[in-house]
Amino acid sequence: MRFGICLLACIPLYANASQKSEMINQLLFGDVFEIQEISTNQKWFKIRLCFDHYEGWVDATQYTEISEAEYAQLCQSDQIYVVTTSIATLKNLKDLTTIHLSVGSTLPFFNPKTQTLKVGNQVFKWQAGEYALLAPQNRDWICQKSFLFLNIPYLWGGRTWAGMDCSGFTQIIFKIAGYRLRRDACQQATQGETIDFQDRQPADLAFFEREKRIVHVGLILPENQIMHALASVRIDILTEIGIWNTDKQAYSHYLHSIKRMIK
Q1: pTM higher than 0.85, yes or no?
Q2: pLDDT digit string (tens) for 184-193?
Q3: Domains in the chain and their CATH numbers?
Q4: I need a labelling partner for 194 at 20 to 30 A (CA). Which of 1, 70, 108, 156 fits?
Q5: pLDDT tens-digit map of 193-213
Q6: Residue 6 forms beta bridges with which residues?
Q7: Which of 47, 126, 59 is nearest to 118 (CA)?
Q8: Cα–Cα dist 191/180, whole Å
């Protein structure tokens, strides 16, 4: 078994071994994975992410190989530093180039005293932005931090400041708050405790359906508001029926369930 890490700002993850196929996810800086399959032309790797076990294909030229011991250490570590601002920057001390990291990026093997991280023969120096050691945060923290994501454009499969989909948004806001969600809305809906509408609280997640399939998720805010990604990350009104779009004055999504991820 071979293992890898993303040392670029992000790497697209495709449904199939082709850049013409659907982008289903993005790896962020510091994401680690195991390689499950190699395409016949050796140009594509099918991978499985450590964080959420999501699978897909990456371009073989975009990853950095790590050892099984490094992979295990990063997967099992309880000392995980993540970026908590929209954008942060690292300098690669080998070639003096700058990498712009998105919120939710992981800082592997990060030393807060020297403000550096080393992976293989590459050493990076922290330049700007904010980071934090992962620890469970409360509901107020999540709701306040969510405003960092407002107006990020919608992008199917996206998880960066340049574009996110609905479940990418909820996964990243919960990641920086110290909680691990799966990748897709239908997968996230299998987690947590089901809550009645009248018992909802800020930082619960609301899931929405179309033709009996879960197709959307959003973060419940105070005062009957919900933050979700539709065209961009925005705030609308949540009712027992679904999401009332304040621009169109119509329902955009219909409620399936509410889940509590924080005890």
Answers
A1: yes
A2: 999 999 999 9
A3: 2-132 (2.30.30.40), 139-260 (3.90.1720.10)
A4: 156
A5: 999 999 999 999 999 999 989
A6: none
A7: 126
A8: 10
